[in-house]
Every structure is written in structure tokens, then in C-alpha cells.
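Hi Y.,

Following your request, here is the sequence exactly as I used it, all 460 residues.
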Amino acid sequence: MTNRQATDRQATDQSALDAFMRDIEARSPHEDEFHQAVREVARRVLPMLDDKPIYRDLKILERMTEPDRVISFRVVWQDDDGAVRMNRGYRVQFNNAIGPYKGGVRFHPSVNLSVLKFLGFEQQFKNALTGLPMGGAKGGADFDPRGKSHAEIMRFCQAFMTELHRHIGPEEDVPAGDIGVGEKEVGYLFGQYKRITNRFEGSLTGKGLAFGGSEYRMEATGWGVIFFLAHMLAAQEEEIAGKRLVISGAGNVALHAAEQAIRQGAKVLTLSDSGGHLRVEDGLDEERLKQIADAKAHGRALADVADEIDGAAHHDGPPWEVACDVAAPCATENELQDAGAKALIDGGARFVVEGANMPTDAAALKRLTDAGIVFGPGKAANAGGVALSGLEMSQNSVRRAWSDEALCEALEETMRRIHDLCYDWGEAADGEDGPVDYLTGADRAGFRKLAEAMLAYGVM
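Below is the corresponding structure, written out as C-alpha cells. Let me know if you'd prefer a different format.
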């Protein structure tokens, strides 16, 4: 292809993308997070429609951008003083072409329809990549569990499930935990589901081991990020041992990503929370990481534990200015922005692997890819959690628990398959010798699987 032909093709592709997004924005105004997620997928998938026109004729991509249904409901509960409180709850069921709806429930003040639509839209592609029969969904409420008593959280969960139970079930929709919803909250939610329906079934995942949960579910997302990273490095004939990692976040994903990275010989330099970031110049070890995990479990900030582990607290936001080989944003959406991407490049980073959902904004993503950074997208790299959820569903269905060894092997094998799928579908960003475009690979592989299932059902 000549330079002129390439320029003309880029202009045509941009025109098609702009037209597609105008329709999305008109149908779903003021939903910025959702628009961002759709734009990034559409940019990479629209050229596929030229190769198989039936995708265009039957509006497959347009149908993927519209949820099957959006459920919004009032959640009324009482605090410990007896005062009546009210929140808004949601369940967004996006696509069940390859299996029951599957996706987490998030309790956080930032929860709104745009955030949940972006998460559910991404979830359908992520679940498709696992190879397991799971559709895509997401749910949650604008409830903030921080500062609430156990009794208040229990009452809220019970009120939330009183409405949600009508819309879920093992063959319909199987929620799980997410930000603000851990094993404790899942226990309260499942208990209320069981009370109302009088059924003990795999209607939620992330349950405790005492009542149908699976080993390694809490570890799976963070561990999976590092397993995916190890395959990214191996594809470049490198290994994780000795690599300097900068990790953001100090929640479940970040802590378990740090744990697995340390076990594989990496040097984990940072974690972060809302108060800033923690630096440990000689790298964390498992003992100090356990101290941090215990502190966070008791509601302490990273700054409060810095001196105890010979670290340094920095109150100037995320840790992207720390020199590293690999950055792993594991906190929340759009946390890595353009200035942070520039700092990572200037600091020598050559790999970025996402542990959170869409933590890299559009400007940062462009800067990283233009610089030749090898980029592992969250919809692939953090799929370990939902993969283990799928295995928990399988265990619940057959009423048996798999061994620790079998589950760990299954997680590692799933992350290898996801990596290889993305690698095979990814196109070199800078010619044959450039880095593999894992984001294009993830989007196109996920789209193809969903599209073929949707075609099989006809127009519906």
C-alpha cells in the first residue's frame, strides 16, 4: 500500500468511526465513559465489517452497543440511627449470545448508568475471550460502604437483592463482586437471594468457601494480570524476574498482582490509594506486602503504614513518575492520563498491563502506542477474575469443588489462551518488527466470537 493509499484509508476509517459515534452519542447522550469504551472498540472493529459485509448488513456492532435491557431501581434501607436512606441500584444486561449474563456488582458513589454501561460493554468482550460460556453484564449502586457499620452494609445488601433477585439466576444472570463488594457483601447478597427464592444455586460468584465459593477467586484477577504480563514478556523473549514494576491501587487486584509479581522475581516499587502513593526503593517482599494488606483491611491509608515497612509516602497522586520497566494501573478507570503516560515513557517503561477496567484514557493510550510501548488491555489482562467465576459456576452446577492445583492450573492456562488469542489477532503497530497490538487483537477476537453467535440466532 502506498503512502497516499494509506492516508486515504485512514481518512475513510476515521469518517466511518465519526459517523458511527454520532449515532451512539445521539442515542446515549452525556454518557462519556460509555462513549469512550465504544469508540476504542469501534475504531478497531469497524474495518472488519468490510471483510464480512453481513456484520454490517445485520448491524452486529450496533446491536452490541445497545444493552438487552437496563434495570434501574430504588434501594431503601435504614441506617443504625433508624433514619431512612435511599440509593439507586442498577443491572445492565448487555449480551447473552454465548451464555448467561455475567459481571460484577459495584458499590461506589461514582456509580451511574454511563459507568455501568461502559463496564458491561467491555465485559461482553472480556468474557468472550475466556472461552467460557458467559455473556456480559454489570450492576451496582451509588452506595458508599466506607464508614458504614456491618449492620448497615447488611441491610443495604438485603434491600438491593430484594429487587435484583427478580432478574438473576444461574441460567439467566450471575453477578459477582467488584469495587465495594467483597466476600462479606456477596454473603449478605446471596443470603437474601436464598431467603427470598428458597433456592440454593449458583446465582452469584465470589462466595465464601463455606457456601459454594471457589479457591483463588479473590486472587484470580491480580494473579491473572501477572500471568498475562509474563506471556507478553515471553513473546518479546524477556522474563518477569528482575523487572521493576510500578503498580497503582491497593485493593484486591493491586495487592494480588503485587503478590504474584514478587513470587515471580519482579521488583514491585509502588502501590497507591486515594491519599497518594507508596514507594519502596528496594522493592516489596511478601512480608511487607502482608503488612500493607492487613493495614488496608483495617481501613488504614498507605501513608499510615509507610514508616513501618521502610517506605516513603508521596501525596502527589499516582506513581507514574517512578522509573520502571512495567506499569500496571490497577485502581480505577481513566487513572492513567496523558501526563502520566509521558512520565512513564520518560522513566523507561516499555510495557503497560492493565489490571483495572479502562484505566488508561484515550490521550494516554495514543501516547503509549505511538511510543511503541507494549500494551496489555484490561479486557484481556484482568480476565482472570471472571474466568475463575466461570469455573465457580461450573463447580456449583455439578455440586463439587475442584482442587487448588486444578484451579491454579486452569487459571494459568486460561490466561495463556487469552494472551495467544490476542497475540494472533493483533497486528504489528509499526510494521512486521513492531510490537503486537494486543488491544486490536482483544477487540477483534472478542467481537468475532460474539458476532458469530449472534449471526447464528438470526435477527432478534
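The chain has 18 helices and twelve strands.

Thanks again,
Q.
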